[in-house]
Amino acid sequence: MAFSTQESDEVLSEMNVTPLVDVMLVLLVVFIVTAPMLTNAIPINLPKTEAVAPPDQKDPLVVSIDAAGKIFINKDEIQPDLLQGSLQAEKDKNTDLRVQLQADDSVDYGVVAKAMASIEKAGITKLAVITAR
């Protein structure tokens, strides 16, 4: 590291980047800590499977089933009998609608099967079942 002496009357025009680096490192730590907290709004224990690369998707509709058997569409709770109608309305808005289904691993398979049947009856053909790695 080179130190300059002030023997000459020249003005130093070098920028001190140390505070900038400190701020960037603090921001990096903040993002690393907060990013995992933003991903799961509904606590669901997903079953474990092999890792598979998902296809490119633009804003898929997420249907979630929690441990109590409650059904959610993108964080909004919905009654099971209204699921098909809501999905048909979304399908009418977007003909290329993609749906992701995630269910807690303790949920009865019958609830998941009924949700999948409602998705199929709504005319949605692009369905991804989400699991944990």
From TrEMBL:
In terms of Pfam families, this protein maps to:
ExbD
GO MF annotation terms: transmembrane transporter activity
TM helices/strands, residue ranges: 20-38
Listed GO cellular component terms?
plasma membrane
Location in or out of the cell: Cell inner membrane; Cell membrane
UniProt KW keywords? Cell inner membrane, Cell membrane, Membrane, Protein transport, Transmembrane, Transmembrane helix, Transport
Question: Could you tell me the Gene Ontology terms of the biological process aspect for this record?
Answer: protein transport
| Topological relation to the membrane, as annotated | Single-pass type II membrane protein
Identify the InterPro entries for this entry.
ExbD (IPR003400)
Write down the superkingdom of origin: Bacteria
What's the family? Belongs to the ExbD/TolR family.
Known function: Involved in the TonB-dependent energy-dependent transport of various receptor-bound substrates.
Subunit-level organization: The accessory proteins ExbB and ExbD seem to form a complex with TonB.
Which protein are we looking at? Biopolymer transport protein ExbD
Species: Azomonas macrocytogenes (Azotobacter macrocytogenes)
